[in-house]
Amino acid sequence: MQNQETIKTYRLLYQTVQVCKAHGVENVMLCPGSRSAPLALSFMRFEGIKHYVIPDERSAAYTALGMARQSKKPVALVCTSGTAALNFAPAVAEAFFSEIPLIVFTADRPEEWIGQADNQAIYQEHIYGKNVKAEYCFPTDLQYPDSEWYAIRIANEALNIAMQHPRGPVHINVPLREPLYLENEPDFSGVVAKIIKFEQGDKSIPNSIFESLAQYKKVLVVAGTHRPNEKLKQALSDACKDKHIVFIPDITSNLIHTPGSISFGELAIDAISKDTTENFVPELVISFGGPIVSKTLKNFLKHKNIKAHWHLNGHPASADTFQRLTNILDVNAPTFFKTLAGENALSFDKAYFDAWATLDIKASQSAKSAIESLKFSEIRAAYEIINSLPANTVLHLGNSLPVRYASVFPFINPNIEVHSNRGTSGIDGTVSAAAGQSMVDDRNHILMVGDLGFIYDSNGLWNNYLGDNFKIIVLNNHGGGIFKTLPGARSQKELEEYFVVKQPLRFEYLALQHNCEYIFCKDLEGLKPALGQLLATKGKPAILELEFNQLLSIEDVKKKLGQ
């Protein structure tokens, strides 16, 4: 005879999965476990959602994050009770600060067994702290008529909040009593969950915004992390050409080389002499998107003479990155710049625009000349890689040096999509997040990552769903080479032992272990053929390891500019 309380639990979870589907969830990432079995089985038996199973919770969570980032839809994530939930935490934090919707389900013991030396029982409520938009706990017992209604209501609320701007992760803790399994699968085909949807329309732009714009002559627009958007790119190009706004895109904005933009912004700022700085300081900064990689740009935009800073598509807690924030506008960027380009009465300082354009052209030309004179080094290799990738490729940049190389020297095809985990800028989920994106997209996904970032997340290859469109380029300088370039760290006597953490590894056997094609290169002559082999690999993922014996810093290359 089937346990009636267990049947009620499965009935509730069946409706919970219906709620997820109704709010756009198409994929669920499952981590194996016993306590989470009712949750996992409910998702696996629901035909409208595709499921994946990855055992390592930290890697699984980052993989789910990548899937959500690529698909632009919420992804559900399920784990068992205990420390499994803690292993989700790094990816949950990245999702929060990158505004990526994850629906995190953690199975739990009943409340009375927490702290009683029961297996896999820890304090799971509030486990992610402020790194989730909202958190909920399902009722443990369902004998009361309102319990099921309550659980379905908060499931709807969680999904609505996850997808409301700014998007982000939500946590639903699900205490489950034994027995956890049913002898026979019940027929819930006639059970229909209540769906509650939050509808939000586009915001119109008040005329007062453009009236305020008219008082400024020097306007600089900066774009942080952003998804590709052709309408936005066209609107910004028109605004640059017709209105003379200065536009500096971040490498992760997917707006690099927008016609009229200042794509070599960091090098352009470096070229500004001290006695002409005031000529380049904007009166008004307009920003949109997420974090910005370049510290040089961020410091420049903290200048005391900037009169105002407007942030588009904002919310009440929008970041004051440049310490000059004056206005948060609940208006999306494509609509704003399209409307701006059509405002015939508005135009800004052309001489200001031309001065920045001249700096950008000179920076691009001198950087190209300087890099092409380099011998085999990480910077030369990064230049050759991003400069040679074919259109319609998705490039993933590891944190620390890879994303900085691309940021400072963005010689990249404008039709290449760029992503990086810049919400928290950690190295811990680089492989997994890129893998997740490749799982829901047919294009080639190329990850350029440092050796420590690759080692740290090598479990991201413990994944039965990877295809030959996932390719990794490891820049192996045998340690945390970035610390050799940082003024504070490089002068410490503990540099090698504590900061660099030198490692002697190569990755041939790791590639073999995970059934990946392995390619090795340690000189400039072999780089182009190696890249060709990487891109041509079929039937399995591929890893190209580039080995470097000495590190050339970004500052070293900057010193060569203009020589």
Task: Describe the fold and architecture.
α1 runs parallel beside α6, α3 runs parallel beside α5 (89-98) and α8 (230-243) packs parallel to α12. The protein is built from 22 helices and 17 strands. α6 (145-163) links the parallel β5 and β6 (170-175). The radius of gyration is 25 Å and the shape is globular. The chain starts with a helix and ends with a helix. It has a 6-stranded parallel β-sheet, sandwiched between helices. The protein has a 6-stranded parallel β-sheet with strand order 13-12-14-15-17-16. Strands 8-7-9-10-11 form a 5-stranded parallel β-sheet. It is α/β, with parallel strands linked by helices and 563 residues long.
Q: What class do helices, strands and sheet pairing give? A: alpha/beta
The span between the termini is 85 Å
Tally of strands: 17
Q: In what range is the share of β-strand residues? A: 5-15%
The low-confidence parts are: none
**Sheet of most strands:** 6 strands, parallel
**How many DSSP H or I helices?**
22
